[in-house]
Amino acid sequence: MSNSVISVISRFLEEYTTTTPNKLKVVDSYLFYILLTGALQFLYCLLVGTFPFNSFLSGFISCVGAFILGVCLRIQINPQNKGDFLSISPERAFADFLFAHTVLHLVVMNFIG
Amino acid sequence: LLALAGAQALTPAHYLSLPDVARLQNLLSQQFTGLDSAYYSVVGLSKLGATIPDHEGVCQFLKSQLDPMSIDSLFFAAETSQAISGCEIPVSNETRDILLAAVSEDSTMTQIHRAVSALSSLGLPLASQEVVGALTGRINKEDNVMAGGGVQGTAARLSQQTELGGILEEIEDLTARLDDLGGIYLQFEEGLEATALFVTAAYSLSDHVDMEPPLKEDQVIQLVNSIFSKKSWDSLAEAFSVASAAAALSNNRFHVPVIVSALGPATLLVTDVMSQPLALANVLVESAYSVASKSVILSHASFTLNDGVFELNFMSSRPASGYYQFAVAVTGDTRLVGNHVELKVKVSTEVVVNNMDLSVVDKDQSIGTKTTRVDYPSKGKSSFTADSHQNFAMAFQLVDVNTGVELTPHQTFVKLHNQKTGQEVVFVAEPDSKNLYKFELDIGERKSEFNSISGTYSLHLIVGDATLENPILWNVADVVLKFVDEEAPVAIQPKTLYVPKPEIQHLFREPEKKPPTVVSNTFTALILSPLLLLLILWLKLGANISNFSFTPSTILFHVGHAAMLGLMYVYWTHLNMFQTLKYLAIIGSVTFLAGNRMLAQIAVKRYVP
Predict the structure, then answer these.
(1) Is the pTM of this model over 0.90?
(2) Alpha-carbon gap, residue A13 to B574, rounded angstroms
């Protein structure tokens, strides 16, 4: 059982490193960073407590929101998905990404206290 | 014994008592300041039936003050001269012409009234039809209450044969304007003087034409209330109007309001509104019934007139004590108004305590009771002892001294007073079906009321009622009570209601406990570490900025974007949402335009046809 899991994972990693364009890997590493940051914040909250709760929430939501927006960007600039996003060029996707982030940061800054 | 109170139904609430009449006369007896004050004083006093001193002097005054050209002056002088004897006001043809000329539609109602009155008082001829014409014409133009009074007063001076139908109708319309206040008062909104003058004129006219004025009995009583409720008058004119109204209401052909006042037990004074006794009155009790049992005790019993007051010998019928309602009627004259009066009579009596038996009974009834009789008002010789196993019992009767009937007064209390601590405990004694009072004290059960304090208590019986003349407070005996679980006798503190209460300390919300700085600093560093990881990954992937073109739009975009991020930080530290949005709008639009340009350029570069 664990054998097959390990083989699946190694196969996945192999395919990933070979077939994914560089641009997407850049975005993926950004997403990984966001994920780590969010997880660490959550860990802090579990260990130390929820004071101040609003700050924790804003930080965590910032990570979650950024992750989601990053995923959206990745989907939109993936050349394999070009058929689904005919009217949206990568530049347009990036512009949307920036605009959505502005709104997210505005809300997060408001809530951080 | 009897006591009288109150009068319900619609009977006059206000009238001129003898002191009021005296006060009114006093006000009207002031020194004259002019013809008008002379008129009010002299005529007013004559209406009240008072004597006017020094007729000669008054006459001289009138003649000296008279202005033969003024209608008002002539009116005052003429009317006043009629009230005193032997005074003739000289009249010239000119005077007569002036007065006659005033009788027209174009003069005010007051002028018409005064001119006609002056003509009539001076004995000069006047044409009644002309007057009626002038009045009818004038009343259409002057549709107020004072005019109405003027019309009536004028019409009363005309000859008997004059056709006054139209005027009488107008009067009826005016009476509809009276305001009913609470069902007790009826008056014109123009005030007391107008109401009083109107009433005077109305009765003067109705007597003159021998037709009842358009006022119902209730309205007459309400008018009486309004006119005589004011006991001090602001002006001579007001006092005069009240005096005129009083005279009119005591002496006219149709309505004479009756004032019934109670002078004492079963003694009534029956007068008119000016406190003059009514000559022809007959007072009788139509029915009298007991309030409690509703049984009629008197029917059609007459009061006897005794030296100006009406008395009834009620006590001879030996009524039981309590409250009675009397319906009294004043008869003898068809003009009497408000002559049915309801009076409340209280018959009180003396009470005596009979057969007071005290005993101490064992709860389990094993030991026979020992009853001691105590006679009022002496005190029981020996004191009684009772403990928690026993009951203390009292039985007695309350009897009316006069009739021998058992009474059940409102207040029958048994009070136990601890002589050492001053504590008092009060219980109620209840009568049984045979009106025998019984009181039982279960020592064990009631110990909480005594605070379980044993000792000698003095026993008092308290009897009281509104109809009893001799309330009783009788120290019957002393009782020694023994309680189990006795507490040390504590002097009873008066209830401390009004001392300052203990101060409330407010606890402000404690700030939450913060984690130690070391921990939070560690985690801050920890959070920032993935950034490092990101940079390393990007480097490994070969992410670079080699394509960076130094076009203005690119630079502007990056600057703008950095500014936006900087704005976020400033928002966190200094600004509020509104300011931030304002700056964001400015920077954002710049950044957007530049960014648009920049991305377009990149797209163009990327596009490889």
Answers:
(1) no
(2) 47
